[in-house]
Structure formats: C-alpha cells, structure tokens
Amino acid sequence: DSGVTQTPKHLITATGQRVTLRCSPRSGDLSVYWYQQSLDQGLQFLIQYYNGEERAKGNILERFSAQQFPDLHSELNLSSLELGDSALYFCASAKGSGILEQYFGPGTRLTVT
Amino acid sequence: EDQVTQSPEALRLQEGESSSLNCSYTVSGLRGLFWYRQDPGKGPEFLFTLYSAGEEKEKERLKATLTKKESFLHITAPKPEDSATYLCAASLLSGGSYIPTFGRGTSLIVHP
C-alpha cells in the first residue's frame, strides 16, 4: 500500500459525458502528478500540482483539467469524453517538485462506451 | 530530442537465470534516472533512484547501475514473483518545466 488513494476504482460512462477522478496524496507529500496509461501509449504524464499550484504540464488535452485543493487532495476532470479516453488514470504523490521518487495510487479504470 | 528507450520489450527467463534490462536516455542535464516495477492493473512501485554515472543501488535480487548514456537493471537468480513490467523514467526539460518521462517498459516473465 503506497498510501495514495484514488476513487473511484472503475468508471463506465458514455461518449460526451464528464467525469471527475479524485486523488489523496500520502501524508506529507505536497506534489500530485496525474498520468494516463493505455496499451498503445504507455504511461503518459498529464499534469502536476505542487502545494495547490500548477507546476508542470504534459500532453494534457484541453478537454481535461485538474486542480489541487488546500487539503492537498486533487481532482482530474475529463469532459466531452471520447472512446479513445478509455484508459487507466493514475495519480502519484511526492514530497517536493521535479522529483520522480513518486508513490502511485491504485488507479481509476475509465471505460467510455 | 530528449527521450527514454527501454529494451527488450519482453523477456522470458527460467527461474534462476540471471539477465539485464536496458534503459537508454538522451537527456541534456539528467536530474536522476528512476526505476519502477508495475504489476498488471496496479500502479507503478518505486524501486531505485540513480543520480550520477557509476552509481549502483541494490534491493534483494535487483541491482541498478547508471552510465552517462544508459542504465541497467540486473536481475540475479530471478524467481517467478519477479515477473512484472519494469519501467525506467527521467525528468526531461520541456517548456521551462521538468516533465516526467517514462519508457515503454520491459515485460519480464520468470518461469518456475
């Protein structure tokens, strides 16, 4: 158990819908990273927040957005969903910024039908 | 172009048959090379951080090494429970920020 929690574990929704994924980092960690993992793309970095502020952005679509709240939990919002958005979404936490010694949550499996 | 490449894509070993996984990187200004283990359907699990050429880290049957161009994950006398996908990662500078970049991974299967 990494100490990072993610909800929900599974999500099935239809094209065009909007969903919110939630992540709680390990106690004491200030950074939250979001990743998308699909079979053909591998593990892709989406976005990072550090102590409430956006710190780095990867290949995140404009339909996707995220935020980190004062209690340090984070949410990833995915809207206008397409079939190709079906994937595993992981969040990871770390003590600082720019650090890849990260601790990953169990992931949310999103299926868009 | 900065990137992280792993080989082989897949590796099958017999229990006790030692081998090495490769991670090559082309990064200007490496800020650490990281190894993770991922079991199917689960989040990656952090294994090692290497910061400078010549550095080595060990954990049970795994040893990670780093040169100026690549890193190796050596697996000595593997057991079936070592079967997993092994990912390496580096921070790549992009647009003024350091972006975590993962290789595609090596899928290791150890047969009893």
Key words describing this protein structure:
heterodimer; A: mainly beta; 4-stranded antiparallel β-sheet; 0% helix; B: 112 residues; mainly beta; 6-stranded mixed β-sheet; 11 strands; 61% strand
What does this structure look like?
Chain A is built from no helices and eleven strands. Chain A has strands at residues 5-7, 10-13, 19-24, 31-38, 42-50, 53-57, 64-68, 74-78, 87-94, 103-104, 108-112. In chain A, a hairpin with an 8-residue loop joins β9 (87-94) and β10. Helix content of chain A is 0%, strand content 53%. By secondary structure, chain A is an all-beta fold. By secondary structure, chain B is mostly beta strands. In chain B, 0% of the residues lie in helices and 61% in strands. Chain B contains no helices and eleven strands. Chain B has strands spanning 3-7, 10-14, 19-26, 33-38, 45-50, 56-59, 62-66, 70-75, 84-94, 97-102, 106-111. In chain B, the strands form two sheets. In chain B, strands 2, 4, 5, 9, 10 and 11 form a six-stranded mixed sheet that branches. In chain B, strands 1-3-8-7-6 form a five-stranded antiparallel sheet, with no helix packed on it. The radius of gyration of chain B is 14 Å and the shape is globular. Classes of the chains: A mainly beta (113), B mainly beta (112). The A-B interface holds A 2, 4, 33, 42-45, 48, 55-58, 88, 90, 92, 98, 100-107, 109 and B 31-32, 34, 41-46, 49, 87, 89-91, 95, 97-105.
